[in-house]
Amino acid sequence: MHSEYTSFQLDENVVPFAVGCPDPMLLPLDVIQQATMRAFEGPVKQEPFTFQYGKMIGADSFREHMAKFLSDEYQMKIGPGQVALCAGASAAIGVVAQKLRRMNEEAFPLEKGNRDVLCEVPTYFHAEKMLVDAGCKPVGIPSTGYSDESAMGLVWGVETELAGRQKVGKAPPAFIYVIPTFHNPTGASLSTRDVLELACLAEKYGTYIVCDEPYNLLTFGANPMPQMMPIVQGHAGEERVISIGSFSKIVAPGLRCGWVLANETTLERVYCSGGSVISGGCTNPFAGLVVTEMMKGPCELKTVVANAREILGKRFSVFETEMKAANLDNCVRVPSGGYFAWIRLGNDRDGNPIDSNSQEFKSKCSEHGVQITPGIKCVIESATTFDSSRDHSLSKCIEKIVDSSRNSIRICVAATPEQQVRMGVQRLAKVIRHFK
């Protein structure tokens, strides 16, 4: 089975703005092939344990090269002991979520809410499945994308929820799931100040922050935005932050390879002691070896990432130009990196908010050959149901964001070359004008 959001729409007449995976132009197949050949010519022959289970934390060579690569990119010191190899972000989140949920249940066996996880509204639309399958219960907080529009943003929501739980005797949440940089779906990013405040809150109230961060290296025209864990080093809450990165967005999804960054104690306690990691050892040793080859010598990985930044940056530049030409630039904030933009549709000719998930809107998109993601698809429904003990202002804030999400769409340019971006915005403008 394939999701419409992670596989290509093969109809050349449809612009796939809903697809969240890279098109062939972004896949460095030659580089991957050459790195694989070098791996077999050198390390595989020299290291007889390459195709064994491997160290749970990953091969030393991968962790050393990954630490150096990220230190160079982020201009922040990261040590090999803070890095673990994983089989992509989703797999690592599954391991970490299960472990943190069990830890919280053991620490607070009798308190209500010991399986709760705070997650943003809106957020990555497959997050609910990952969290629920790990035995967690999602609880909504305002998204990164709404933090700069009022005082009622992500940090306010987290602090209000954590303080409220403590007041009524609820357990702290098992963790807080966030996408701090180039957010999916809003494209927004947290400030350094907000990142440090979140870490302080996690420390104060005894919870963790799990950062889903596959887009940080994809900054347009500037230095990459560091992941949350390197930012909080040396600050309060350092041991409470787990940053998870992936090569799926910067190299190729099929590698199923990524990394976990955390304080050494936290990495051992939360990731390496996960049941599936203990049982299976390193989760993808061969892909890690291939990526290690890409990071050696002249570091082909730097070139691959730079190429992805340039391509995506040009696509969003075209997107911005066409949105302005269609007089739609006032309803979107073009991101400074990543894959996604969030468009507010506004009201129809009768003064009612346009519902992007309505049959009429979806039919018009289909009629004009443009595929989008309705904003409400990015809202975890179970996370928007609250009990009476919750702060009223927080509940009302979430309700407002849910309504806004119905009036919004997510756009992704990863699968759309520049000409398709141009054509897609023009088609989308026709759809929106139909309702205006």
Helix/strand layout:
Elements: E1 15-16, H1 29-41, H2 43-46, H3 60-74, E2 83-86, H4 89-107, E3 116-121, H5 127-133, E4 137-142, H6 154-168, E5 175-178, H7 192-205, E6 209-212, H8 228-232, E7 241-246, E8 258-261, H9 264-271, H10 275-280, H11 285-295, H12 300-325, E9 340-344, H13 359-368, E10 370-371, E11 373-374, H14 392-406, E12 408-412, H15 418-435
Parallel strand pairs: 1-10, 3-4, 3-5, 5-6, 6-7
Antiparallel strand pairs: 2-8, 7-8, 9-12, 11-12
Helix pairs in contact: 1-11, 3-11, 6-7, 12-15, 13-15
GO molecular function, one term: 2-aminoadipate transaminase activity
Pfam families: Aminotran_1_2 (PF00155)
Protein name: Aminotransferase class I/classII large domain-containing protein
Protein described:
This protein has 436 residues and is α/β, with parallel strands linked by helices. The protein has helices at 29-41, 43-46, 60-74, 89-107, 127-133, 154-168, 192-205, 228-232, 264-271, 275-280, 285-295, 300-325, 359-368, 392-406, 418-435, and strands at residues 15-16, 83-86, 116-121, 137-142, 175-178, 209-212, 241-246, 258-261, 340-344, 370-371, 373-374, 408-412. The strands form three sheets. It has a seven-stranded mixed sheet with strand order 2-8-7-6-5-3-4, sandwiched between helices. The chain has a three-stranded antiparallel sheet with strand order 9-12-11. Helix 3 packs across helix 11 (285-295) and helix 13 crosses helix 15. It starts with 14 loop residues before the first strand and ends with a helix. The model has no long low-confidence stretch (mean pLDDT 92). InterPro entries: Aminotransferase_I/II_large, PyrdxlP-dep_Trfase, PyrdxlP-dep_Trfase_major, PyrdxlP-dep_Trfase_small. One of its GO terms (molecular function) is 2-aminoadipate transaminase activity. It comes from Mucochytrium quahogii.
